[in-house]
Amino acid sequence: MTKKIFRSICSVAVCITLAVLSIIMGVLYNYFSDIQKQRIDTQVQYIASAVELDGKEYLDKIQDKTFRMTWIAKDGKVLYDNEANSDEMENHLEREEVKQAMLTGKGTADRYSKTLTQHQYYSAVRLTDGSVMRMSVNELSWWALVLSMAQPIIIVFLIAVLVSLFFASRLSKKIVEPLNQIDLDNPNNAKVYEELSPLLEKVKIQKKQIKNQQLELEKKRSEFEAATENMSEGIILLNSDGVIISINKTASRLLGISSYCVGKDLLLFSSGVEIQELLRKAESGKHSEIILDIEEVSYHFSATPIMSGDKVTGVALIIFDFTEMEKAEEVRREFTANVSHELRTPLQTIAGSAELLSNGMVAEKDVPQFSQKIYKEAKRLITLVEDIIKLSHLDEESPDIISEKIDLFDIAKMTATNLTPVAEKAGVALAVKGEPSIITGKSQLLTSIVFNLCDNAIKYNNRGGRVEVEVKNFIDCVKLSVSDTGIGIPLDQQSRIFERFYRVDKSRSKEVGGTGLGLSIVKHAAKLHNAEIEVRSTLGKGTTIILTFPK
């Protein structure tokens, strides 16, 4: 705006200067022309008087060529001319100034001289003998006057331009200064021109509207970020050109790109042909999905077009790690197969023994043996079903189990007391040591942890062996350790002992009635308590399992 005002003032000043100079030159031209004509009129009177006295001899004596002098006879013949040969000149009787002089004694005229090819002013006076004395001079043209005064004109023009530039700069800044000092936060307090009051009022209203819209957009953005940032799925919003306008933390992590990629094309970070094709379909208005393996991880990409009427204005790209789902599906398949296998074995035993008994194919003396086998397998089947139900509850994080303050040392002592008969039957010494250790947890699950660890330590121990349960209380945690002097676990199998139905010694496990789910229950229950599990085992010497519960 300052530049526009500056240019406007300068343009006006230059135009006014040129107009004034033109007017002055016009006035000067007329002034000098009048003076020149008056001078000729006076001079011709003097020359006429001299010619009356001396005739042509006087004219021959004049050396000044400033004026053209012509003596014309009464019949129009040229008697004398100081610039041309009088004998070769045409008759001047019809010349306007000559006619006037012969009639009135004096005549003047302005015309173009063909002889001298110039615009001239003529002044003529009649002599007493009837002849006419005429003088003429080249009239000074307007452009000749301008050229003769070019230097002062240029100087005046330059001075006027410089003065205009100076004042234009000062005035433009002075005019704009109040506008620059307007406080847009408080436009009504601004001291500006009265004509700007309606504008400031509109600014105030629009500022209020923009502020309300900004607050609303900020609220919606916060709600959107709160909803998307905590999602396990990655969400990327793209405009119609494929430029990222929003990306949550999960998407940044899954694709390994920074959240500062907003405002850049997604294909700069992922140039895969499949993703390009996925986005192309979405931009054409079609929903599409693909599964891609990136660095040994499976990702599920789902692209949905964002429509505004019939036009695609953007694309919502949803990404999630498909690997865990595939693993979970594989675990479910394995679990189903293992459950089927584990249930089939006792059921077949029970069905076979019952069939033999019902058909009377068992000797009287063998009936107790078959009955005992049916009872043993049924009991194993019940234990297996109970463990499966426990795992199902743990998978679903059943809400019917309430957390409370619990002394883990009391649970360890109570569980050891309940398992003492089993330990004595197996020929294993069971001992508990430690100190009162309070944690927040679920009593039923903590009891299940201690029970399963102790039960495994007894089952996979040697006769005459020992199982020791220890509870230690630390400032920030409580540690539960169960040690045995049993068969131990090979190093290459220690990472798998918490898998469902996994057994280190399969023959011994079935012999002692193990279901293969005990340590899986321990793992899930520990996870619900945010506990860490550590396994220390030496083959043939024993195993120690340590659980660390945070306070």
**How many structural domains does the protein architecture include?**
4
The secondary structure category is alpha+beta
In CATH, what is the class of the largest domain? Alpha Beta
So what's the overall shape? rod-shaped
What average pLDDT do the residues reach? Answer: 77
Helix content: 40-55%
Round the Cα radius of gyration to an integer and report it: 60 Å
Number of strands: 17
CATH superfamily membership of the largest domain: PAS domain
Q: Please report the distance between the alpha carbons of the first and last residues.
A: 69 Å
Describe this structure in words.
By secondary structure, the protein is of the alpha+beta class. The chain has 4 domains: 2-148, Beta-Lactamase (2-Layer Sandwich), CATH 3.30.450.20; 224-321, PAS domain (Beta-Lactamase, 2-Layer Sandwich); 325-395, Helix Hairpins (Orthogonal Bundle), CATH 1.10.287.130; 404-550, Heat Shock Protein 90. It contains 14 helices and 17 strands. It has a 5-stranded antiparallel beta sheet. A 5-stranded antiparallel beta sheet has the order 7-6-10-9-8. Strands 12-14-15-17-16 form a 5-stranded mixed beta sheet, with helices on one face. Helix 10 (367-395) runs parallel beside helix 14, helix 11 packs parallel to helix 12 and helix 12 runs antiparallel to helix 14 (518-528). The protein is rod-shaped. It starts with a helix and ends with a strand.
